[in-house]
Design a protein that fits this description.
- The chain is an alpha+beta fold and 179 residues long.
- The protein has helices at 4-15, 22-36, 59-62, 75-82, 152-155, 161-174; strands spanning 43-49, 52-57, 66-68, 86-88, 124-135, 138-149.
- The chain has a single domain (4-177), classed as Beta-Lactamase, CATH 3.30.450.
- It is 32% helix and 24% strand.
- The radius of gyration is 16 Å and the shape is globular.
Length: 179
């Protein structure tokens, strides 16, 4: 069995010609979800375009907006600027930009409350790890993997140093796709 990093290097070679097309981003996002034992909507792939981070996966987030690279409250922007990976196992309690979290990714409408309004999303990001994608000229993107749930314990196990190292290695192998 090939290591995850080798498997992603192979995927990167296959995707290099077309870059992060919708199809390639879907494939990479799905493989990241399998590798880290999370749901597909718990993976984010962002590409740096003209001083903004733009979601390429999940595709639904691409239409919501972008994250200016100089945004102080966005974890993805901090990761891109610092060029350092990080784990935040208490993400729900940390100050962060939550615009993208509010987007329903399952395709199902949110349930209505007794007053007829949609209820607050029951599964929020509880734990997150991020890694910069570094090309020859610096940061070209960011990969995020998270665990969602109604609470920290319900979201699953904490991300550990080995998880983060694996994500950093995978991000490095995927850099050639970020063109």
């Amino acid at each position: 069995m090939a290591s995850p990093v080798m498997a992603f290097a192979q995927i990167a070679n296959e995707c290099e010609k077309d870059g992060l097309s919708h199809k390639n981003a879907e494939r990479i996002g799905g493989e990241l979800a399998k590798t880290f034992g999370v749901q597909p909507d718990e993976v984010g792939i962002l590409k740096l375009e003209k001083a903004h981070l733009v979601f390429v996966y999940p595709a639904r987030l691409a239409t919501v907006g972008s994250i200016p690279i100089n945004t102080s409250g966005a974890v993805a922007a901090r990761t891109a600027n610092s060029k350092k990976a990080e784990v935040i196992n208490s993400f729900a309690q940390a100050r962060h930009v939550s615009v993208f979290e509010a987007v329903e990714l399952s395709g199902k409408p949110k349930p209505l409350s007794p007053t007829g309004e949609t209820e607050k999303q029951s599964h929020v990001i509880q734990k997150m790890m991020t890694a910069p994608v570094l090309g020859p000229e610096g940061t070209v993107g960011v990969i995020e993997v998270c665990r969602k749930g109604t609470s920290g314990p319900s979201a699953g196990p904490d991300f550990g140093p080995m998880d983060l190292q694996k994500l950093v290695s995978i991000a490095g192998s995927l850099a050639k796709c970020f063109k």
